[in-house]
Amino acid sequence: MVGLVYQAMGLHQAWTWALLVAILNYIPYLGPIIAGIPPILDAFVHVGPLASVGVVVFFTALVTVEGYLIVRS
């Protein structure tokens, strides 16, 4: 899902960032923060500032939903 959304947003390394998210989400607390930084920077540099805000909103929603609905169930 992350790879498809990042690709639709126009990120250059969408699937690399999706793989990074999948791996780093196993690290508690800091993993999602570290995994969120590179796609935000990629969107800001290659697509534009509005896309980076979209990545922040999407990634925050994704991590929140995953933490409350999927992991804790």
Describe this protein's structure.
With 73 residues, the protein is mostly helical. The chain has one domain (2-71). 82% of the residues lie in helices and 0% in strands. The protein is built from 4 helices and no strands. It has helices at 2-9, 14-24, 30-47, 49-71. α3 packs antiparallel against α4 (49-71). The protein is globular. The relative contact order is 0.16. The mean pLDDT is 92.
Features:
mainly alpha
Structural class: mainly alpha
Q: What is the count of helical runs?
A: 4
Major beta sheet, specifics? none
Low-confidence stretches: none
Tally of distinct domains? 1
- SSE ordering: HHHH
Helix content: over 70%
Strand content: under 5%
Radius of gyration: 12 Å
Large-scale geometry: globular
- Average residue-wise pLDDT: 92
Strand tally is: 0
Spatial separation of the terminal alpha carbons: 20 Å
